[in-house]
Amino acid sequence: MGAPKTLAEVLAALPEEERIILTLAYLRGMSAVEIATLLGVPPKSVEAVIASGKARLTAELGI
């Protein structure tokens, strides 16, 4: 078993769109609507990426 991954390592391994959305949501504190407006995508799509990304981060970090 290798060393635990850091948040930066896990984020870096994500697809670019997912990484951007999660960064805007969690590190910049933007809402799904704000992110959707900025990126020109539907808010429901942003919400789905946030939900799946959060699950992925939780699993990868073991928390």
UniProtKB/TrEMBL annotation:
Coiled coil: none annotated. GO terms for biological process: DNA-templated transcription initiation. SUPFAM superfamilies: Sigma3 and sigma4 domains of RNA polymerase sigma factors. InterPro entries: RNA_pol_sigma70_r4_t2, RNA_pol_sigma_r3/r4-like, WH-like_DNA-bd_sf. Pfam families: Sigma70_r4_2 (PF08281). Residues 7-57 form the RNA polymerase sigma factor 70 region 4 type domain. GO terms for molecular function: DNA binding; sigma factor activity. This is Unannotated protein.
